[in-house]
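Protocol step 4 of 5: obtain the predicted structure for the target chain.
Materials: sequence only (see below). No template structures provided, no constraints applied. The aim of this step is simply to have a reference model before the mutagenesis design in step 5. Sequence pasted as it appears in the construct record:
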Amino acid sequence: MRAFAPIAVLTLLAPLAPAANQITFEDRVELTRGLMAEYGTVKVLLPRSKKPLEFNSDGTYDKKAWGQIARESGPAARNGDLIEITKITIETDRLVLEINHGFRGGGRKWYQGVQVQGPMSGPTTIGNGDSNAPGGTSIAILFHKPLEPIKSAEVKKMLAPIVDFDKHTVTELYADTLTPETKKAIVDKRVTEGMTRDQVIMAMGHPVYKSRETKDGLETEDWVYGAAPGKITFVTFDGDKVIKVKVEYAGLGTQVNDPGKN
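Step 4 output (structure tokens):
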């Protein structure tokens, strides 16, 4: 019996290999790399929710429950909106995806209260009113069993009923259908009225800030580029179309309502 003692000790000290059906460190790395900062187009209304929205790995979810949450907390994204996965949490039996930095309350826009000096007038304050802009949310993909090895591409397929990850590459979507005027604006990195959200992204990239507000029954969304002091571009959407472009030069003494008309 003593002759086998060293072998027994070595067996106890040797690291255990992960089971074939157990998620590995490499799997976790691939999921994080494959999903983090990915953009997708929303196909349904996503409610704002402090608690992750439950979504089953077979592609089903409780539409009635989601609708109730939306009525109570408002939307985080609507059909056609572009969303971003900003955090991935891998748990024992689920994946939790943070969308657009998670649940955030409404409130003042970051640029509200910024003063802009005009060439022929005193300082004016940008955005005096409050905003009811919705924030992000989060989605918990439920597997109802211990998590097994899975790739990011499989997760995207699971989410296909609510998010389309195949149609967010705006260059592929619109390059062949753009008018000469729109193509020139994109090349010049400027926004003009009538552009779509994807065309704005082609021209300017993703905004540093978004907000929604309702005024006189019209719900609009603002995309903001730049920061003070310096050039700040405000792009206002009604649905998927740009209805207004305004540029403020904070501290530089001038204002342009629509750079596309210069």
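Step 4 remarks: Residues 98 and 138 are 4 Å apart (CA to CA). The longest helix spans residues 25-35.
Proceed to step 5.
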